[in-house]
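SAMPLE LOG
Freezer: B-3
Tube label: C17
Construct: single chain, 381 aa
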Amino acid sequence: MQDSSDMDTITSVSESQDISLPLLISLPDALSAVWERVHFKKIGLFLISIFLFVLAIVLMKDSARGISSLVQDFITVTNPVNCLGFGWLSAYLIMSGSPIAATALTFFDAGMVDKIGAFNMITGSRLGASFIVLFVGFIYVLRGRDRATSLSMGLLSLTVTWSTYILGLLVGVSILRAGVLDWVQLRSGTFLYTTTELIFDPILTVMNSFLPHWAIFFCGLLIIMLSFQLFDRCLPQMTIKESQVGQMSRLVYRRWVMFSLGALITMVSMSVSLSLSVLVPLSNRGFVRRENVIPYIMGANITTFVDTLLAAVLLNNASAFTIVFVEMVSISLVSMIILATIYHHYERTILDLVAWITAGNRNLVIFLSVVFVVPIFLMVI
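STRUCTURE (predicted):
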């Protein structure tokens, strides 16, 4: 009997060991799987992009005052209308709005433009940046995709951005002139500003000893463009699965859900080019319809200023922060009022305009002529 009892005890112990052994083995395997999913290359690119972004702001801030005469001689930014056209056309040329928005803040910090001029230049940068989605659509057309479908998302991005930002321009200028939001000034950037001085001042000193101010400024502009490109490469690749789209099919018909989604994706990615350009392949695959993305574009156009807010903090200029904040408030007010009151009329008008543009080559040429002629005209007024 004692032998039988001992055998039962040994068996129970061995069974308990057999049960716990897989658990002990699975824990290291799970940790190893998590470790393998960490993309150290993307983390490194992210840190490099942030470093370059801050370096570019420091370079542009320090050299902006030294190029004031150059800007006044060769670039017409003598009034708010010129500033709007300059920001608009410059965003076309570099296919990005964020570097131009940061440039507007450095111009303001250097005293080259006033509050209204900086506000208009930032607005122009967003008007020009929306062209990137239309450019992606043209690429899809060249690849043999349907022209109307491929260009529709880019045209929607342009028309929605233009309509909301032009109205937001009127609202924002009124707010700035009235001074009702002048009290909104972030003053806690002093520590960050002091830290950046300690890190980047040696680099700036070396560059000042070899390069003129205008060269340093354009180096900063090139560096900030590079930083945004690296940051886009850090973002995870978006995969589209039929099952996931099926689960979200009900949500895309709710305007406030799409509005929030556009704002969230752009805020997390800090890239309106990414959050809007992804609409082109989604539309080509039939996952989203044109009328469903108008609120999405509105939301994306608000949180696209996150990186510009960071630039204002790095400048340690409280008024610069206020300018960007007023930009976000004005666009938010216009978008929310449209969504809450006249959305169906607005939607029909925008879709009819896009349908007219894509109806024939003549209409498309007329629209593209307006796209490029208007900012040039604003610069020469």
